[in-house]
Design brief:
The protein has 126 residues and is mainly alpha-helical. The protein has five helices and no strands. 48% of the residues lie in helices and 0% in strands. The relative contact order is 0.17. The longest helix is centred in the last third of the chain and has 19 residues.
């Protein structure tokens, strides 16, 4: 018996591209045209065994900025800062983010084509 696929837990938000670009931490190429909001939306859409709310995603982003890869007990610290997530869940969430960024940077995910910021924002309300 084939299992029916369920709809994603959230509607994907429409986000305008950021005007500020920075160097990609993955490829070293310049510029990286991926706003943190787009990365958050992708992470939220692909979390595997647990759902992540907006607060947890924001805390996750802040924790990643605070605890770099050389920080002792990095994943434990990040999990504590996120709240309600284990070290394994934050590691998995990070891996999904990195996979998504690689897909975006390699051109496998198209960028939205917004005519202006108002139309992008109005789509979020629908």
């Amino acid at each position: 018996m084939k299992k029916e696929e369920s709809a994603p837990p959230y509607k994907y938000p429409s986000l305008p591209l950021s005007s500020s670009c920075k160097q990609s931490p993955l490829t070293g190429s310049h510029p990286l045209i991926v706003p943190s909001q787009a990365a958050s939306a992708l992470m939220a859409s692909r979390s595997s065994s647990s759902s992540w709310n907006a607060r947890q995603n924001k805390n996750f982003e802040q924790a990643l900025a605070k605890y770099d890869q050389d920080t002792p007990d990095r994943w434990k610290n990040i999990a504590t800062m996120v709240g309600d997530k284990t070290e394994e869940e934050v590691k998995r969430h990070y891996q999904v983010l990195m996979d998504d960024l690689r897909s975006i940077e390699s051109g496998h995910v198209p960028f939205p084509n917004y005519t202006d910021r108002r139309s992008a924002l109005s789509e979020e309300d629908q």
